[in-house]
What does this fold into?
Amino acid sequence: MSHDVLYCHWNQLLMVCCLLVLCCVANASEPASPGDLFLGLTPDARQGYEAILNRPMGRRVMAIADLDRIWQVWEEEEREKAEVAASDERRRMLFERYGWVQRPDDDTFDLPLGYTDDGQGGLTINCFACHGGKVAGKTIPGAGNTHIDLETFRVDLLRLRALNAGKDPFEIDTTPPLNVQTNYHKGSTNAVVIEVLNYVRLNPEVLLQVLVQPDMLQHHDMNAPAWWTTKHKERLYIDGFAPKTPRQNMPFARNTEQWDWEARWQALEPTFVHIFQYIEEVTAPEYPWEIDRSLAARGQRLFEQTCAECHGTHDEEVNFPGRIIPISEIGTDPVRLTAVSRPNREWNNNRWMQYHGEQPLDLESTGYVAPPLNGIWASAPYFHNGSVPTLWGVLNQQERPVVWKRTEDGYDSTKVGLEVKTFDAVPPDLSPRHRRMHYDTTHTGNSAAGHPFPDVLSADEKRAVVEYLKTL
It folds into this structure.
């Protein structure tokens, strides 16, 4: 295969990469003391929040002016609705389509929380694209964005560029190279594989292997974790394989027009010291509806007898053990464990991101970390792949739906989690976008199996535990 062909393939892959925010932080124990990792700065959470929201750090994704015309490349039915809609309704449709969230205290659908004005008429993606969500219709910075649909956005951007070039936007091929979709289900991202592509790009022999054998990439959806659990952890990600440092939050801060990413990262590192502190100080929202306190007190006793050994206790202070549960015990979807290969990890450990080996990644993953549960009522869907829509489903294996579709802003206060419609299978003849709205637990990497531990509880005891979880 020629270098020109490889270059063409990689340019396409970069188009995918630029859409994905990888500020993802996941699950492990007591907060580390970063020491000189703070570069001698006094970390300032407010500066970190403002930097995420207002400092352009990634590649330009689109022109702000195109927000008012991207509807022209939507499917016929949606396009016809948008064409006759008032401008504010059209913006609402725009936000709903891509899973964008309004900025706090902004009811105008101006700029989405997850995108930043670059000062030159363009939008760049920021950390809140994945870690700024809404729960029951209310924007909560730091919540996982369970509405996001980067794949629909990727396809529409390609069509928009074709339209701008005078081509028929519906005649172009929008298949991603190597079939690297940015997400398979709305509300999640193929984040791990997107980051693996950095390793692939910078290792030509690996790139050649992947081009010949694309199934080397182990695709799977990931559910962006809520940032308010991060303060209780000392290692990151669902398998706890990464140290918690300012640099670990930086992979998304790439500009695909600038190949020397490490030089760019070094310039941004002081900013990420403040972003690190902001993430450390994000607090869980309180459950906003009525709680049966007597039932919750019973649930707390049951929780401490049954669940606390792994998830910790949650009184005035969270006592979090950061236990990694072997995959043979937890039984949840195993694809994530081997998606980042040992050679990939070894390569990363020698580079700037891991402080040239001083803050290494673990070379093997054996299971998943049982996360702290503060704010768990606002963290649906559940499991690392977002396969279970409610806490009731987490506690009842046999009641987990095979296929489910959420409402835009509904909340199930009985089962605690997303308001969903359930199906025995994905309905036939759906467009790709509407298919992504149906979470299919039979899809590779999206199994809802496992976590059998609550089976020791009766139905009444499980209801009490769910009531208690509302209080965390």
Q: What stands out?
A: The first strand starts at residue 60 and ends at 63.
